[in-house]
Write a structure and sequence with these properties.
The structure holds two protein chains of two kinds. Chain A is α+β, with helices and mostly antiparallel strands. Helices cover 26% and strands 31% of the residues of chain A. Chain A has an eight-stranded mixed sheet, with no helix packed on it. In chain A, strand 21 and strand 22 form a beta hairpin. The longest helix of chain A is centred in the last third of the chain and has 24 residues. Chain A is elongated. A two-stranded antiparallel sheet of chain B has the order 1-2. In chain B, strand 1 and strand 2 form a beta hairpin. In chain B, helix 4 crosses helix 5, helix 6 crosses helix 7 and helix 6 crosses helix 8. The chains are: A alpha+beta, B mainly alpha. At the A-B interface, strand 27, helix 6, strand 35, strand 36 and helix 11 of A face helix 1, helix 2, helix 3, helix 4 and helix 6 of B.
């Protein structure tokens, strides 16, 4: 049971107003709800709500089978009449070896292998249009071999603004946990489980792709009223609020859930969950943890609070009243690290040391998705970067600000540290020129390329814009884009327009280059020339008439220096960069180079260069190699010696162990 | 001291290409101090991306030297056994002569022991796979830890078993020189299983040796980022201590083998040089 059994308040209202008006609002909301019906969560809809679902579902935990009845109310929100309906039947991706998903994935998702002893599928046993109190059967068609997409032709097109009601009954066989959904032991993660409409787009028709390996989802906003019938011992977590729980037939119970202004519904059930509740500024944080991972509950909660804090401050309030954090068990890790509206799954293990921040990372990333995916509902099939990339950037900001930029993922474990930025940079650089960011998810040449281009490069591109324009400007960009995208289906074009409006045309051009191209950049100190200055000999042309000057006796060679610093750029990506030049007298000068054109030469008369550092602050995060960015007149062996000593100690330990074994 | 020096020398040799590459990359970089603050992950990442030739050039030599160290390790171990057999007046020559003399025998027994270890490892792996499959679907709050505990128990058992047999395979070097390989190995195994308390006591000494080695490595790993001469000196003192423990283990094993009824007696040759351990006529027995 959830905290929000009573009518819940929209969090978009100012806190002071909520406090003052609390009794009245509660009363009004109670009146708005039927006596025994679901509560009204948002008196004023936040989204178009053109695809709403009412579902009754029953779980057979022994057979891992769901039996469901579904009522869909869909409104055509475009000016184009819709002659048919297209549904996603995602669960059929796991039906056999011949599906698009299985062929593309080879039965692997992330590092997890599909258990081919436990296939899954969904069968729609009836599909009817409700019209004038009658139910008209609709014929199911499957365009293509893959039955993850179903079409139903309508007796008459749905006119613009028109509404229809569809009823289905369906049965789902869940696979063993794979690609975010399924069962593991007594744990059930029920995602992508019900017949779900695609998105009817103006001028384009139905956007309803098969379930691809490297892809997530896309759907319209609406309300969800879901009644989940489960054995009595099950603890249930779900999208939205659990507003009631009633006893059913012996040994069973029904859990009533409602969600508003969301575009998906997922739920989980397990008798083993350890439940913990906390609050962040009125939002109920409900953690459903595996008992063996209970020690990680504070890690989940801390990360959740810090993430919500950052996102609310940067983008705007989290409008929902609850956020459920689900922890999958060992053997069900394939369900981990996933976002659904108001419900996320994390990743924890008793074997993770405190210094390895995987739980914090997973929670931060998935909570960032509550904004970028949950509310800004882009098409994840076609422009995955819009949620994954921006969520990755937000995750980086959250973790950097909390745990430190250089140690936000691994902090001092065996003397090793790494930050989220470095990790994303390493991931991107392995596929830097494999594909552009803009592309359909299934068109990337590999899973690694999909990840690098959907997650890492966009995050680094945003960091590049932040470094160029400052953090406040980057925050303004995010907020502007979010406000425009909130409860809509934004596209990359919308993002670029926001960049232009907030940061200017040059920033937009750069962003476009980074999204559309595969160009890379690598700066290098090509040469540093310190020449001893000599007194002028020959004719001094500054005099009139020119006078002949002879060499001074004894000479003054070495008393002055003329210096040149040559900086080169490999790759076609043009990015401005700072070159920090330190002179022998310890004075420092920062030179700016726009990064364009042939090698850049900085010349200094009367000064000797001691050190040169290209991009000393590490602002060009997309750069391929950084270890050729510097030069210094006096070499310093100390840093390398530390690394070599570490490596030597490892070898000595190994050799000593060999001797001990002999 | 020989054991310590051998490990140290090979560590220096094997790390030479790495050292050259890293110094070449970092010494001229003003930003190098910040770069290595993460323990070298960024450097390794750049190295791995900096071309196909760089990585093998830096790390290829390590593999070769590790392979070369294995036979040298056998010689060093043989030398340790030779010195442990008695008081040598010329320890330097005694160590090396004993090591070289014992090498063929050690090598053959190491091969048999390796085959046995592989077999035991496969059995242990199978057991762990079975346990993991059985606990794949957790059915109770303690299932996860029960699975982990059983896996750990299998690993510990396999390690102890393998080590015990390995240890006595080498202890048997001190037995009959004309003994055939496999019968001698079988006899060693039977001896170790007949004398469980003593062999396990030696096993505990061995495990403590490995644990101290691992702890030292761990401690060094945590402090290596700070560097400095003091930590380097402490590290080397630690390795010396590990080598000393190793010698103590060898002495214990030899002493135990010598005390087994009818097994081993020490023979000192002219000039005081310790040759090999001699032995009685019955060979090792399983008498309790």
């Amino acid at each position: 049971m959830d905290a929000c059994r009573s009518p819940c308040l929209p969090r978009s209202l100012p806190t002071s107003v909520v406090r003052l008006a609390l009794p009245a609002i509660l009363l009004a909301a109670a009146v708005a709800a039927r006596a025994d019906g679901p509560p009204v969560l948002f008196p004023e809809p936040l989204s178009p709500r053109n695809a709403s679902y009412g579902i009754e579902v029953s779980l057979d935990p022994a057979g891992h089978v769901l039996s469901g009845k579904e009522t869909i109310r869909w409104r055509n929100a475009t000016p184009d009449p819709a002659p048919d309906l297209m549904f996603h039947l995602y669960m059929n991706a796991f039906a056999n070896t011949d599906t698009v998903f299985m062929k593309e994935s080879g039965g692997r998702h992330r590092q997890f292998r599909f258990d081919d002893a436990h296939w899954g599928n969904i069968v729609v046993s009836s599909l009817r249009l409700v019209e004038g109190g009658r139910e008209i059967p609709l014929e199911q068609e499957f365009p293509g071999r893959d039955r993850t997409v179903m079409r139903a032709r309508l007796p008459a097109p749905v006119a613009p603004g028109g509404e229809i009601e569809i009823r289905t009954t369906f049965e789902v066989k869940l696979p063993r946990v794979f690609a975010r959904t399924g069962w593991a032991g007594r744990f059930h993660m029920v995602g992508q489980w019900f017949p779900k409409l695609g998105v009817w787009e103006e001028g384009r028709g139905w956007n309803c792709h098969p379930f691809h390996y490297a892809s997530e989802f896309f759907s319209d906003f609406g309300t969800y009223d879901v009644e989940i019938d489960v054995p009595e011992d099950q603890i249930v977590g779900a999208t939205g609020v659990v507003w009631s729980e009633r006893k059913g037939p012996p040994g069973r119970k029904t859990v009533f859930c409602r969600a508003e202004d969301v575009h998906d519904f997922a739920w989980t059930a397990s008798p083993r969950f350890v439940e913990r509740k906390d609050r962040w500024e009125g939002v109920v944080l409900r953690v459903l943890m595996q008992p063996e991972n209970a020690a990680s509950i504070p890690r989940y909660l801390e990360s959740a609070k810090r993430s919500l804090e950052f996102l609310a401050r940067t983008l705007g309030p989290y409008p929902y009243t609850v956020l459920t954090l689900v922890d999958p068990p060992a053997g069900g890790e394939g369900a981990g690290g996933m976002e659904y509206p108001t419900l996320i799954t994390g990743e924890a293990s008793p074997l993770f040391p405190r210094s390895l921040r995987i739980p914090e990372l997973a929670v931060a990333h998935e909570i960032a998705h509550q904004y970028w995916y949950g509310m800004s509902a882009n098409n994840e099939f076609e422009e995955a970067w819009l949620d994954e990339g921006i969520a990755s950037y937000c995750e980086m900001r959250i973790l950097d600000g909390w745990l430190g930029r250089d140690r936000s993922i691994l902090s001092g474990f065996l003397g090793l540290s790494i930050g989220d930025l470095a990790l994303q940079r390493a991931a991107y650089l392995r596929y830097a020129d494999a594909a552009p960011v803009l592309g359909k998810s299934w068109e990337y040449p590999s899973w690694g390329a999909y990840g690098a281009m959907s997650y890492d490069k966009p995050a680094l591109a945003l960091r590049t814009l932040e470094n160029a324009h400052g953090t406040p400007a980057a925050d303004r960009l995010l907020r502007t884009f979010f406000e425009r995208a909130r409860f809509r289906h934004p596209t990359s074009i919308d993002f670029l327009e926001a960049v232009r409006d907030v940061l200017g045309a040059r920033a937009e051009a750069l962003a476009r280059t980074l999204l559309e191209g595969t160009d890379t950049v690598d700066f290098e100190v090509l040469d540093v020339r310190n020449r001893e200055g000599e007194p002028l000999r020959g004719y001094d042309l500054s005099k009139s008439p020119p006078t002949l000057r002879a060499a001074a006796k004894g000479g003054t060679k070495g008393s002055t220096w003329d210096s040149e610093v040559w900086i080169g750029r490999a790759g076609r990506l043009t990015l401005p960069v700072t070159v920090r030049v330190t002179f022998e007298d310890r004075s420092v000068r920062d030179e700016e180079w726009d990064g364009a054109g042939p090698p850049k030469v900085f010349r200094y008369a009367g000064r000797k260069v001691a050190k040169v550092a290209v991009d000393p602050e590490g602002h060009v995060v997309l750069e391929r190699f950084r270890l050729n960015n510097g030069w210094q007149a006096e070499e310093d062996p100390a840093p390398a010696a530390k690394l070599v000593a570490r490596f030597r100690w490892i070898l000595q330990a190994f050799f000593s162990a060999v001797l001990a074994a002999f | 001291m020989y054991l310590y020096a051998g490990a140290l020398a090979f560590a220096w040799l094997a790390s030479a290409p790495f050292a050259a590459a890293i110094h070449g990359m970092l010494d001229g970089q003003p930003d190098a101090g910040r770069t290595v603050a993460d323990g070298g992950l960024e450097v390794l990442d750049e190295l791995s991306r900096s071309g196909t030739a760089a990585w093998p050039a830096v790390f290829g030599g390590v593999v070769a030297l590790v392979l070369a160290f294995l036979p040298l390790g056998l010689v060093l171990a043989g030398g340790a056994y030779g010195l442990a057999a008695g008081r040598a007046e010329r320890p330097w020559s005694t160590f090396w002569v004993a090591g070289v003399k014992r090498f063929p025998s050690f090598f053959c027994r190491a091969a048999v022991a390796a085959a046995y270890t592989a077999a035991a490892g496969i059995v242990a792996w199978g057991a762990i796979a079975g346990i993991s499959a059985a606990f794949r679907e957790p059915s109770g709050p303690g299932a996860f830890w029960t699975g982990i505990g059983l896996d750990a128990a299998v690993v510990a058992f396999a390690a102890l078993h393998v080590r015990t047999v390995l240890g006595f395979a080498f202890a048997r070097v001190t037995a009959k020189p004309d003994e055939r390989l496999l019968p001698g190995f079988v006899a060693a195994v039977s001896l170790c299983w007949c004398r469980l308390p003593a062999t396990h006591a030696i096993g505990v000494l061995f495990l403590s040796l490995q644990a101290s080695s691992a702890l030292l490595g761990l401690a060094l790993g945590r402090t290596a980022g700070q560097g400095g001469w003091i930590s380097a000196a402490l590290a080397q003192a630690g390795w010396l201590g590990v080598a000393w423990l190793r010698v103590a283990e060898v002495r214990t094993r030899v002493a135990y083998a010598s005390s087994a009824p009818g097994t081993v007696t020490h023979r000192r040759e002219a000039g005081g040089e310790s040759d090999t351990l001699s032995h009685g006529t019955e060979g090792p027995t399983c008498d309790p």
